[in-house]
């Protein structure tokens, strides 16, 4: 039980740190220079949004999953809605920061990132890989 608590504390700490990282990166002044560069770099910016929110969703699932690697569907739905709201809020606040701009496409990539992060982490990693590994290690003892 103590080991599970320490793992949950680790995932919670990583989730909080990553959330603060997203806030910092989203709201730091003058970070909009990439939009003035080439088309490829603009697409790379969108991929960074996807990766940031993919990680956000994944860390949340790893933190909240119980010892059977389950999370209530309502909680997953609330997470996705909250993450979309968080993304909109970060984009909105960028209107107030010099050198930043509101970008709907960023919000789309953020949303897709959260959905994929939650989906892949929950349905593949937790439900299949870790559950099978846990089941196998319990049967070998």
Describe this structure in words.
The protein has one domain. It has 4 helices and no strands. Helix 1 packs antiparallel against helix 2, helix 2 runs antiparallel to helix 3 and helix 3 runs antiparallel to helix 4. The chain is elongated and about 50 Å long. It starts with a helix and ends with a helix. The model has no long low-confidence stretch (mean pLDDT 81).
Brief overview, please?
The chain is 78% helix and 0% strand.
Write the layout of secondary structure elements.
Elements: H1 2-27, H2 39-64, H3 73-94, H4 104-139
Helix pairs in contact: 1-2, 2-3, 2-4, 3-4
Features:
elongated, mainly alpha, single chain, 4 helices
Name the assembly state: single chain
Count the helices. How many? Answer: 4
- Strand tally is 0
Order of secondary-structure elements: HHHH
Main sheet characteristics: none
| Average pLDDT | 81
Strand content: under 5%
Report low-confidence residues grouped into runs of 5 or more. none
The 3D shape can be described as elongated
Number of domains: 1
Instruction: Give me the secondary-structure category.
Output: mainly alpha
Radius of gyration using CA atoms only: 18 Å
């Amino acid at each position: 039980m103590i080991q599970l608590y320490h793992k949950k504390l680790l995932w919670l700490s990583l989730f909080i740190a990553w959330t603060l990282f997203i806030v910092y990166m989203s709201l730091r002044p003058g970070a909009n220079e990439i939009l003035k560069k080439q088309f490829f770099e603009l697409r790379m910016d969108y991929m960074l949004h996807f990766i940031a929110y993919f990680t956000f969703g994944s860390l949340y699932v790893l933190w909240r999953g119980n010892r059977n690697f389950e999370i209530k569907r309502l909680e997953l739905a609330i997470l996705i809605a909250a993450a979309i709201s968080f993304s909109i809020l970060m984009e909105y606040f960028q209107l107030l920061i010099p050198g930043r701009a509101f970008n709907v496409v960023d919000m789309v990539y953020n949303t897709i990132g959260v959905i994929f992060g939650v989906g892949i982490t929950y349905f593949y990693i937790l439900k299949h890989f870790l559950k099978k590994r846990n089941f196998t290690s319990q049967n070998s003892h």
